[in-house]
Structures
1.
Amino acid sequence: MNQPLLEIKDLKTYFYVKAGTVKAVDGVTLNLDPGVKMGLVGESGSGKTTMALAVMRMIKPPGTIQGKISLNGVDLVTLSNEEMRKARLSQISMIPQGAMNSLNPVARIRNQILDGLEDHGVKLSKSEANDRLAQLLQIVELPTKVADMYPHELSGGMKQRVTVAIAISMGPKLIIADEPTSALDVVIQRQVMETITRLVRELNLSMILIGHDMGLMAQSVERLAVMYAGKLAETGGVKEMFADPLHPYTQKMISSLPVLGRRGVFEGIQGIPPSVINPPPGCLFAARCPKVIAGTCQEISPALREVRPGRWVSCHLYN
Amino acid sequence: MTLSYFVRRVFFLFLVVWTAATINFVLPHLAGRDPIKEQMLIQIASQGRTQADAEAMIRTYTRLFGLDRPLWEQYLTYIGNVMRLDFGYSINNYPRTVMDIIISRGRLTLPFVVVSIFISFTFGILLGAFLGWNRTPQWVSNLVVPPMLVLSSVPQFLVALVLIYFVAFRMRLLPMNGAYPRTMVEDWGSLTFWMGYAKHAILPILSMVLVDASGWALGMRAMMVTVEGEDYATFAEAKGLTTWRVFFRYLLRNALLPPLTGLAIRLGFIITGASLVESFFAYNGLGSTLGGAIGNFDYFLLYGIVTIMVMCIALATFVMDMIYPLLDPRISYKAQRG
């Protein structure tokens, strides 16, 4: 058994605001092996993006990060700011959510790519820089002339490809793709997603793919993690999770997906997720859960435990 | 094409100046007053001229200033003169020419106003960017922003009064008024005169800078907060860029665009923007001259100053139009919008 690339242990991201404590991410424990793609799904506000930002240590005050995030055995939480800055892009990089707006509107693509290299100590002569740019753009299937263009001259898909080129430019081990295709139409979505998966495979990267699109997840990832109200509900291999979901939330979610050949009204999950500002004790899904155990679920918060090898669930049903 | 963009802008520049000059010509005529007659009546009242003398003088002056000719002829002469920056003689200060007055007064106004606008802008922008930056500790903002809010909403002359009272009158650190020491003759070739001018300019500049810089800083702070919320700000940080590169190249660079437009407009008001400050510091500058010209109904001086003012605004806008595409690539020389 090799050592996991990313080891997240009891990660808590709390925002201390006037209204109380916002527990955006509350006690997430997660392992990611090298070369594995993991999907992270959950409703809006369930803490997916916050967790991604926490892993990159980009949470701004009044937010705080507690717990352990170790990458290749190095605990990122204890790094100095400067060490963490250098780790971004060279160890972990991000493919951002808003493809349309993630590039600096007043700088040429060339500079936006080279800025990252330069600030990680890569010194290139003019011709070396050109070669590197051409190579990076070619990897993401863009013509070389894009280097001298401005973001507004590119389409959404092209912009997203540029961000992918930037993300891999320093050869990171882990890529966090935060809904990389949600701003694009379905055709472009597929093309960009294919490029990303191909690169992850070729460069032997690990990836955390954040999104709501279960179909996309089924196609692109090997493991799946389901978040609910800042906590991890369930993780496991993507096939097992679809075939045999354990947590009632996952069960409801998967049964709400449309199935080819079956007509009818899909059920969905009744109710709305609870507020994560000063959350109540007990399981946060209890109020919406069809299998709620009276007296237990509302009182005691279920711990995340490994019920089968590689299969973690936080639910009282499996105690 | 860049050339056609340039030609179009130059055309608009002339169109604006011509329109303004025309309005400038028509308006005083609509007022229905006769500046020469009024001037003579004052002289009759104060110096006791006879009726016949006065009427003869009115006729002579009217002919001299060309006010007896048909309106269209006056207009054509006027436009021709404007193009050559010749605004004729001042009615009140005859035989001094309007241009001569504008230059001699403008020399006192221009240096201190230009300096204060640039200091205000540079200082205000940097301060605002710093205050709006999410890495600046909160207590700095809490400390600096309230006084800036007060300063930015107070008129410049009020700040001027406070400065005159404390710095000049009580502490006697700097001269109270005048554009240069009373013991000196206006001589722009001598270094000592410049030094004297500079020393007298400190308080007026300070009173403008305190107010203007606060305004720029507050605006810039708001822009910074907006830019920091943009996705490219987050992505810049995720790229692991150095703090300073993110600050200058990604945040400040983008937040700077709207204030730069503001600066162009502000530069247009160089001439008259400081008239109240000028009068509190007893500068005999252009601002106070304009006020005087309105009071005395000095047609030609009024024409001159207002036209120069319009030219300044049009020129500043023109320069901004020329350099803006360089600052913001999204605005191209080709675009036909607007």
Note: Residues 62 and 68 of chain B are 6 Å apart (CA to CA).
2.
Amino acid sequence: MLISFLQALREAGLRVSVTEFLTLLEALQARVTPGSVEDFYFLARACLVKDETRFDRFDQVFSAWFSGVEDIASALGADIPEEWLRRQAELSLSEAEKAELEGMGWDELMRTLRERLAEQSERHQGGNKWIGTAGRSPYGAWGYNPEGVRIGQDRSRHRRAVKVWDQRTFRNLDGDQALESRNLKLALRRLRRFAREGAGEELDLDDTIHATARRGGQLDLRMVPERHNAARVLVFFDIGGSMDDHVAICEALFSAARSEFKHLTYYYFHNCPYETLWRDATRRHADAVPTHEILHTFDPDYRVIIVGDAAMSPYEVKLPGAGVEHWNEESGETWLRRIVDTFPHLVWLNPEPSRFWDATQSNTMIREVIGERMYPLTPDGLEAAMQALNR
Amino acid sequence: MRFEGSERYVATGDLTMAVNAAATLKRPLLIKGEPGTGKTLLAEEVATALGMPYYEWHIKSTSKAQQGLYEYDAVSRLRDSQLGDERVHDIANYIVPGPVWRAFESERPPVLLIDEIDKADIEFPNDLLRELDRMEFHVYETQQTVTARHRPVIIITSNNEKELPDAFLRRCFFHYISFPDRETMERIVQVHFPGLKGGLVREALELFFGLREMPGVKKRPSTSELLDWLKLLMAEDVDASVLRESNQEKTLPPLYGALLKNEQDTQLFERLMFMARRRRQG
């Protein structure tokens, strides 16, 4: 009977191995649990799921399996359509409503979403597979199964669910994306600047031999500090709007950069950097950092990488007060020029293929400001960009 | 032999289940969770509660898997050879056992803590697979194989800085310590400060959870920081009414330095409080 549970978990996309399953059986045989369903739930979770971000999925499978639902895949609303949710939220929630979300309580949030989803599924009925399923069980897709609440659920689970939902609406880049980040990492490796700093911990063989020889064979140890990657990197991400199509590649880049550089600082902006940048894309206004402050904080030795598609209305670059989100006193061009002047080592990575660049006027304008240092966001372009940064 | 928490440590049902499963089957237990939720403390408490010897291995960014097993001190040996020491002829004199070796040689089943495994290099967990699986390793220098007398209860903590490899995860039990809810937190406070008055605890928790929910905090205060703060409040003999006032008047709580560890957070808090005050007046 447990084998069907294993199959259900695997069908739901949890990579449970046979070894882990055998461990669970072993634990049951050793009578680790007194036998209540709740204990079994905890035990199974400890054995089979090794990542807290998958707990939610596990909960859904568990409750579905235990209430005897046969078709778990459809009960789950298929693979949670994150892509779909993201667009859905974009489409169905207006800017004002998104802002309201911050203040909305959990119940309110769920209610609004439910309404939106219901409307949406009627409008597109039959046309879209996701919505068809979602119409049947919108909760499954939200990682909120009413039955799941019963099992081992406390208030903290609710809070987590809100968090999950949060991640889905607002696209803060997920640094843990493993998505083909390996070749990106390899390219970023080019930017390593090794330096020996700090306490001497490694034996310097050559120096030791020299010193020992000079002292007539009396051992004289020489130590040197270990080599570190001392490259310091500042990344500005364009987020939202036309950049939505490039979220996956940007996440991969972000994840790779984070694991490669010890000194990595990142900020978000929309379309063009103006007088403030954000630490957190969801809290643009609460967490805004004056660009002046950034220019003063980081010394010119920092390598600056701007990631954006440079596609916007030309006015947003050229004129004061043309920013899409707020009134900017000075034009984007002025701010961009300040950044370029402060940081001599700067590149712009563009996720759009380079053959389209000339078609956008704003792109040409930006390239004029930064001086032909725009590279496509491909492994090759990235490699060229890293070489440029090293100069 | 079951772990149920202790006088000093409040363990929720799911945590005791994970610990008992790991202790019964002698498989490593991987613990994750927010900083300050008692991950490291757990191993010590398990050892005390079950009356087992306790060994710990704290991982740093420069740690190598080999260091946990043993180290060959070539430099001492070189030096001894120059001074004509007799010990130099036996290489075993220069093999220094690490925490894993010492735990393997324990007379009684021990508890071994491998703390913050994610601090080390990305390959580190892979280098320990065989050792954790078979509970034995080979000493190359002396050609001896060290096997655990009793399979230790291994508790591994991680702060999620790096992803751990699948092969490693497959061999472990896993538990995520979620941040305690209000009731659990009250129990935790009770366990640590049995004499504390209910009014003070209530006001302190009110303030504490308020701080945690403040949007945009860089470093959210954790359980261990709450306990430190309470200790300070007690030492300074702060009255519950002062805290209540702070809650209502939206001022910085007394001794806030124990909770907010970062200048920006303090500033943010002051700004928010200022806005709240103004809104009330206006």
Note: The CA atoms of residues 3 and 16 of chain B lie 6 Å apart.
